[in-house]
Amino acid sequence: MTLSDRYNSVRKHTEHLCSPLKTEDFVPQPVNFVSPPKWHLAHTTWFFEQFILKEHLPDYTPFDKDFSFLFNSYYNFVGKRVFRADRGNITRPGVQEVFEYRAYVDMHMHILLQLKSEELKELIELGLNHEQQHQELLLTDIKYILGNNPIFPIYDENIEWENQKNAESGFVKIEEGIYEIGFEEEGFSFDNEHGRHKVYLHDFEISKSLVTNSDYLGFINSGGYQDFSYWLDEGWSWVTENKIEAPLYWHKIDGEWHSYTLKGLEKIDADAILTHISFYEASAYAAWKKMRLPTEFEWEIAADKLDWGKRWEWTNSAYLPYPNFKKPEGAIGEYNGKFMINQMVLRGSSCATSPHHSRKSYRNFFHADERWQFNGIRLAK
Amino acid sequence: MTLSDRYNSVRKHTEHLCSPLKTEDFVPQPVNFVSPPKWHLAHTTWFFEQFILKEHLPDYTPFDKDFSFLFNSYYNFVGKRVFRADRGNITRPGVQEVFEYRAYVDMHMHILLQLKSEELKELIELGLNHEQQHQELLLTDIKYILGNNPIFPIYDENIEWENQKNAESGFVKIEEGIYEIGFEEEGFSFDNEHGRHKVYLHDFEISKSLVTNSDYLGFINSGGYQDFSYWLDEGWSWVTENKIEAPLYWHKIDGEWHSYTLKGLEKIDADAILTHISFYEASAYAAWKKMRLPTEFEWEIAADKLDWGKRWEWTNSAYLPYPNFKKPEGAIGEYNGKFMINQMVLRGSSCATSPHHSRKSYRNFFHADERWQFNGIRLAK
Amino acid sequence: MTLSDRYNSVRKHTEHLCSPLKTEDFVPQPVNFVSPPKWHLAHTTWFFEQFILKEHLPDYTPFDKDFSFLFNSYYNFVGKRVFRADRGNITRPGVQEVFEYRAYVDMHMHILLQLKSEELKELIELGLNHEQQHQELLLTDIKYILGNNPIFPIYDENIEWENQKNAESGFVKIEEGIYEIGFEEEGFSFDNEHGRHKVYLHDFEISKSLVTNSDYLGFINSGGYQDFSYWLDEGWSWVTENKIEAPLYWHKIDGEWHSYTLKGLEKIDADAILTHISFYEASAYAAWKKMRLPTEFEWEIAADKLDWGKRWEWTNSAYLPYPNFKKPEGAIGEYNGKFMINQMVLRGSSCATSPHHSRKSYRNFFHADERWQFNGIRLAK
Amino acid sequence: MTLSDRYNSVRKHTEHLCSPLKTEDFVPQPVNFVSPPKWHLAHTTWFFEQFILKEHLPDYTPFDKDFSFLFNSYYNFVGKRVFRADRGNITRPGVQEVFEYRAYVDMHMHILLQLKSEELKELIELGLNHEQQHQELLLTDIKYILGNNPIFPIYDENIEWENQKNAESGFVKIEEGIYEIGFEEEGFSFDNEHGRHKVYLHDFEISKSLVTNSDYLGFINSGGYQDFSYWLDEGWSWVTENKIEAPLYWHKIDGEWHSYTLKGLEKIDADAILTHISFYEASAYAAWKKMRLPTEFEWEIAADKLDWGKRWEWTNSAYLPYPNFKKPEGAIGEYNGKFMINQMVLRGSSCATSPHHSRKSYRNFFHADERWQFNGIRLAK
Q: Fewer beta carbons within 10 Å, N or C terminal of chain C?
């Protein structure tokens, strides 16, 4: 696949994900951590305009001078930005104009790809990987917007992948010793996967399967949400202050657990893999099972023997720099490094991850209370 | 005009006010006190369905069973409602469906109007006056949504009425004595204007004109926002905590004051009547002028000698029941009485008030810090 | 009684009220609206130093230069002040030093009283009335501090006055007509009781007795706290957000209602007069009884026929200026006028009011949710 | 030293630290993370009563049945506790009673020490180490209480240890390889230092000295607090929201930097070791110097070659369990494990650490924004 084809394919996929939406669905930002779909469409485009076209396409005229201000996310280097929490109140530019913005940037990117495909390969790949990250966020944000509507609208009634099952069972044993961690293959990677380095691991066992809804119902039904002894202290505060008693999107209706999926509200599928739980819940579940979560290093070393790719898997590793991590210069340097505090690493990828956007050295990260991603639990001991 | 014609006229006017909007503009709720335009369209319709069609049209089938839940505003009698602050995150039903809801209810209302026009006259009038109230809120909410967009979109470039001027000047003197207050004429009125009763007024003078932008710039330029001695204690906290230094929608650009109007961002028109100020600002301005605001009773008695109808005029009266005020039974009783605490009365009407929706006994009310209505200042002494 | 004797008597009474306290009790400020006893002792003294000694006693040396900053309450004219919410964290100066401050100022006040008793009579009277107001706040703040201690310490086991009973019953009828309102007698009064003016009252009846605990238990037991229809809208939010289900200091222990009084925790005395309720509760109770609260004007006109002085009585009047109210110049002008927004008037006085500190024109005022004063309910119809 | 002597020595030291305090100083809790000195005195005593005397001394009668409720800190196993934020409002029991409580428990502990010194050695050591931890908190909480008083009271004018200097300079080089981490020596240790395990470290260099005030003034003066590029994203939010521009307790007076120390307010000593900075500030300073903070493992391996014990040193390691960490059963298990989320490890000890309470495997931990401990910065590269 040429870079140009790949560019087309990624950009089209974003728009494809939006095809079931009504214009109104593109607008709201129900909570700080969710962004409006319209914003994702524009922001991924802004990335190409800001970092590639403005820099590298001679005589490029930006589509609209206000867009740089409106669709910057968190790049302080690029100037003042709309506060994240206000994104949902900006109705203009409208959805139609944002699609025009995409078309305009795509057209110019194709000109550029003719001219400088090789020279800019790396930067364009970063833009495409950035867009792929936003594709997953787009899906999870759409789910959040629709799933918090009291009438539970259906996104796509044919989606089957939310209720994936385990293909394996049992535990893998790994021997004590020195192992190598971090990106080594060819192809794209983010700065936070570098540099490759050694770690010492002690003997451990890690489950080949993920925790299922049925497993987790065991925890709920045994009073897991009411017993502080399983919980981290901040987790227990989170449970009591927010009156949490089940995963996100779960609703008890007439005594029976249901959950909202992109297919609408349906009864819990007991065999399906659990999803939408916080790190606190993952940690409490593991304590209840008298096991623990793996570290990100254990996960990476065992990855080849595991059935993964269905849920982002909470690890018990904090998101911190690898030895010899180097923050790139300028705005691109703000991509990862500045988030390395108070977040936990998730490994693997999920049913909502874009095609060709996963690898075993990938480090995803979220705050311990965030549940709206398709995350899950794998146990270790 | 028949009731049926009046019904048509009021209902069409609501839709007319929305004609300059894009679909996206119908969705957001940027702050708690602003509602999405879509919600206004649906809620005014819900009022007819809930209180009239369901009760009085035999065999009426509601348009959608969920709408009663989604579009109730604050009528506890009618059951659980969507929290006010979540209105901006409900993308479905979409704008198109809401217009269909309006058409469906209108069609059934016309059937009902054939059958029971006389019998239900009063209730239908209440529904129409309710919708007229929402028409003004619709305009002020649209202004808030567009006016808080950093690109300041234009609603209608032909609107001239925001920059109205005074037609009179000087003061009216009223003699001490017993006066009668409250609704007495024929026609529609709200419960809070009843019952008519006597008050004793002392000699007072009241301005025939409203405070202008130019007058108010005098207050700003003399340091009015920096001098606590003009302010009520809560007003001073409001100014300092929110860093207030001008009316809502005012922006100082390159040393010159501009304001956002429905025509877009423009330079302040010095002769135009001031608007978008809080009660705190009105009170501080009056103190600076060594005058005061009138009471609502003074205002009503002087009304026939005044030039009014351009701004809702803050009075120094708290919103409280008249002697012999009677709260109606049931849900309709929640219309006014339950808000009679911690709000101030505004009298008159504004440039944004719907046609045929003003009278001198009308009691509008807002919290002392609310500025997004077209309100203004009339002085007394 | 000479002014000098009166000065002594008022000042000693403040210290007498503190005699049951331990040093530790003088320190905390558990909520914003409560001040530490130490602060009351110092602030009332500061008033004499700041407004009288510094101005009128030649060569007066302030006790400590920092005290003006530490013990100002809300007089912006006098300069920067310690934020109200931080008062509870200032441990130095200690209680002993504050008593020394009192002694120092008293000594100098006695010198001044020799010299200028006549000339400064009015200002000194204001200082003494100010201290008397703080005596009541001191008692209610002490009650709050001890009453929120889980071990419920006793302030004074011989206090009987909290459980006062009604001495009268039935209703007084007042005829429609013009009446005069406001201070007219000789003696001290606050600016907010002036100027005397006419009001027109319609026929009304007002209860000679106050609502008792037994009456109010009727409201509680009939589900009054669970039925929105009795409540103002903001009152209902207050009830649901704060999970209110009884007056302040009431605790249900083994199925039986107790309340904390200055004598400790004891069973509710059914015949005693109800106290520690918010305006919201007073208003809801009146609605449940199908009556209403009197206005402050009705109260004042009926006062001579009533049994009052046991509880501060919530009226349905907002705290607003009388016609011709004049704010005094300078810092003294901040005493009352700047609070005339979003507060309700209470009339009468309470069992905790200082001797010789009540009159029928007295206007007390609190926010609608404040309950820690000894307030109560008198019904009208 | 016998266990009995050691018990005496530790217990006396706590009381010695309180000797400069006035009774009033024992009461307040100015912010959530600070506890009243009175509370520390009681809580450390409660630990011995609750976990040792009640369990192991036959026929022991608790001093006061309410104390178990009042002075529990965070042990959910032991039942309901006073909310941490309310500790500052509990005036009774008073300071005198708390000292009596200490004497009562000490007396019974001495009886127990006669009987079961050997058997309970480990538990008593835990109690003593617990009290030593609170001794440091007591000092830092006292500093916070006095340091936030606008008159800056002096705790002890003879304290010299806050302005300690570095004794060494230059960097230590450590070679790549496998190292062992965790407690191994004889003597007391906390559960979080176990179990000893291997880690792989890459080549690194670590400074023998800590950052000084003079060094840090370089960062301040070069605009470090105004340049986002040095900061973690959450750190930058923290700086801008809280308007941070210097370490805690620093005040710029007439253009010159001062800081509050336990000796009072004094000019910054340029050569003294910097203290009272957040992890965010430590991390930003390191970025400005183009270096980094060490990990806790690097620190432990290099410790023997370093000059440490003057400041708690922020590491770039999150507080997480070691491999094979085992949470003890019951209440004691709540000591450490449940805090292993969203906190950063500090290594070493400080000028305020109690004698005989430091070792190189000790893991202290605080949130990234906490500054009131005597912490500091050591750089690595």
A: N
* Chain B meets chain D (3+ C-beta pairs below 8 A): no
- What is the DSSP code string of C259-277? EEETTEEEE--TTSBP-S-
- Taking an 8 Å cut-off on Cβ atoms, the answer to whether D91 and C150 are in contact is no
Same domain, C130 and C77: yes
Same domain for A372 and A278: yes
Task: Specify the DSSP element, H or E, that contains B115.
Answer: helix B95-116
Pairing of strands C312-318, C375-376: parallel
Q: Do residues B108 and B171 both lie within one domain?
A: no
The reply to whether B88 and B130 lie within a common domain is yes
Residues in A touching B66 (Cβ below 8 Å): 150-151
CA distances from A219 to A227, A290, A333, B164 (A): 10, 12, 42, 67
Per CB-CB distance under 8 Å, the chain D contacts of C91 are 22, 24-25, 27-28, 145-146, 149, 153
Residue at a domain's end among D147, D179, D214: D147
What residue of C is the nearest CA neighbor of D70?
C150
- The parent domain of residue C64 ranges over 3-147
Given a cut of 70, whether residue C84 has pLDDT beyond it is no
Interface test with A, best of B92, B96, B144 (most A CBs within 10 A): B92
The rounded mean pLDDT for chain D is: 94
Which of A112, A147, A182 is the endpoint of a domain? Answer: A147
- CA neighbor of D43 nearest in space, from D8, D3, D78: D78
Query: Residue C145 half-sphere exposure, CB side, CA atoms within 13 Å?
Result: 30
Q: Considering the domain boundaries, does residue C185 fall inside one?
A: yes
Report the mean per-residue pLDDT for chain C.
94
Q: Do A188 and A74 fall into the same domain?
A: no
Asked if C191 and C134 sit in the same domain, the reply is no
Do chain C and A touch: 3 or more Cβ pairs under 8 angstroms?
A: no
CATH of the domain at D167: 3.90.1580.10
**Listed residue (C130, C175, C186, C170) closest to C361, CA to CA:** C186
- Please check whether residue B153 lies inside any domain of the structure: no
Residues pairing with A346 in the sheet:
A314, A364
How far is the C-alpha of A159 from the C-alpha of A19, rounded, in Å?
Answer: 14
Residue D187 has pLDDT above 70, yes or no: yes
Helix axes A213-221, A279-288, angle to 10 degrees: 70
CA distance B344 to C318: 10
Phi then psi for C169, rounded to 5 degrees?
Answer: -150, 175
DSSP string of A37-83, one letter each residue: HHHHHHHHHHHHIIIIIHHHSTT---S-TTHHHHS--S-GGG-----
Tell me whether residue B358 is in a domain: yes
Q: Supply the pLDDT for residue D68.
A: 83
pLDDT tens-digit readout, B199-248: 999 999 999 999 999 999 999 999 999 999 999 999 999 999 999 999 99
User: Given a contact as 3+ CB pairs under 8 Å, which chains touch C?
Assistant: B, D
Given a contact cutoff of 8 angstroms between Cβ atoms, the answer to whether B77 and B52 are in contact is no
- Whether residue A172 sits in one domain with residue A87: no
Q: Which residues contact C177 (CB under 8 A, 6 or more apart)?
A: C200, C201
Task: Verify that B60 and B194 share a domain, yes or no.
Answer: no
Give residue A73's pLDDT. Answer: 73
Q: With respect to residue A243, please indicate whether it lies within any of the assigned structural domains.
A: yes
Which of C28, C69, C153 shows the shortest C-beta gap to D27? C28
Q: Which residues of A touch D (CB under 8 A)?
A: 74, 76-77, 178, 197-200, 202, 204, 228-229, 231-236, 279-280, 283, 292, 316-318, 320-321, 323-324, 333, 338-342, 344, 368
> Number of folded domains in chain D?
2
Q: CB within 8 A of C380, min separation 6: which ones? A: C204, C205, C206, C207, C291, C292, C293, C294, C298
Q: Rounded to whole angstroms, what are the CA distances from D109 to A331, B302, D67, D104?
A: 62, 84, 17, 9
